[in-house]
Every structure is written in C-alpha cells, then in structure tokens.
Specification:
The protein has 159 residues and is an alpha/beta fold. The chain has helices at 14-27, 49-64, 85-97, 115-120, 134-152; strands at 2-8, 32-38, 72-82, 102-107, 123-126. The protein has a single domain (2-152), classed as 3-Layer(aba) Sandwich (Alpha/beta knot), CATH 3.40.1280. It catalyses: pseudouridine(1915) in 23S rRNA + S-adenosyl-L-methionine = N(3)-methylpseudouridine(1915) in 23S rRNA + S-adenosyl-L-homocysteine + H(+).
Length: 159
C-alpha cells in the first residue's frame, strides 16, 4: 500500500519532525508512506474574504498537482466524518482489500482546503471539532495510520 500525506507548508518544529520520523520508521514494515509538502501561499495576517479564497485556491492547485487520478483521497476537515481508530483501520483495510493501493490524506493550510480539493476527496475525515495546528496534525495523523495497521494485523498497541 502506498500512502501519501500531502500538507501545506514547511514543518519547522524539530520535536514534530522527530515524532513523525519515528512513526514513519515504524510504518515502513506495513506500507510505503510519503510526506509531501506543498508551499503555503504568502499572505498578510488580516485577509479579506476574497483574499482568503484566493490563498486557498492557490494552495489547492498545488495539492491537486500532487494527486494522481487513481488515488483514493481523504481530506482532513473539521466538517468531515469523525471515526474511531478502529473505524479508520476498517477504512484502510477495506481500501486495500478492494484494490485501492494508493491513498492520499490531505491536510490544508491555516485557512483550510479549497472547494476543489474537498470535491476531489473521496471522503472527508475529522479528528475533532477543535482546531489543531496543521503541523501538529501531521504527527497525529501518522500515529493514527500506524495504529490502524497494528489494529488490522491484530498486533498489540497501547490504548
């Protein structure tokens, strides 16, 4: 299985990089997981509605350029469906069983995802009604993907 985590912006925090690297190392026994960063759009701190739309549009174009036609896309959005770890494991297992060997998880920038990216998504996933920094979300997501593989293999993992 090939899994891509496509996210907006550079990851600068060393502690997050270390955590992600640890889970990527653990995941290498189960799947090929690739972290893809696309540039965030430079914008002033305070934006008009039109400027926000334009920023999301440009970031969205960069994201879509990284997704092949045969990839199953899961967008991360507050409005998405909440799942338990077991349900995410079922989703990944189901996709693998039915020949969807390419999965991309999409994490937007600070303004979220463009309508075009959300439309390209096969499903939308929410981790919480709370807002998390998109850099931290990468670590949370990669840990949950690792947990999903452990669940699917019936291997122990602390709860």
């Amino acid at each position: 299985m090939n899994i891509s985590i496509i996210s907006v912006g550079k990851l600068k925090e060393k502690y997050l990089k270390q955590g992600i690297e640890e889970y990527l190392k653990r995941l290498s026994a189960y799947a090929k997981v690739e972290m893809i960063e696309v540039a965030d759009e430079k914008a002033p701190e305070i934006l008009s509605e039109a400027e926000m739309i334009q920023v999301k549009q440009k970031e969205g174009e960069r994201i879509l350029a990284k997704i092949s036609a045969d990839t199953y896309v899961i967008t991360l959005a507050i409005e998405g469906q909440m799942k338990t770890s077991e349900q995410l494991a079922e989703t990944i297992d189901h996709l693998a069983t039915y020949g969807k060997s390419k999965i991309a998880f999409i994490i937007g920038g600070s303004l979220g995802l463009s309508p075009e990216v959300l439309k390209r998504g096969n499903e939308s996933l929410s981790f919480s009604k709370m807002t998390f920094p998109h850099q931290l979300m990468r670590l949370i997501l990669v840990e949950q993907i690792y947990r999903a593989f452990r669940i699917n293999r019936g291997e122990p993992y602390h709860k």
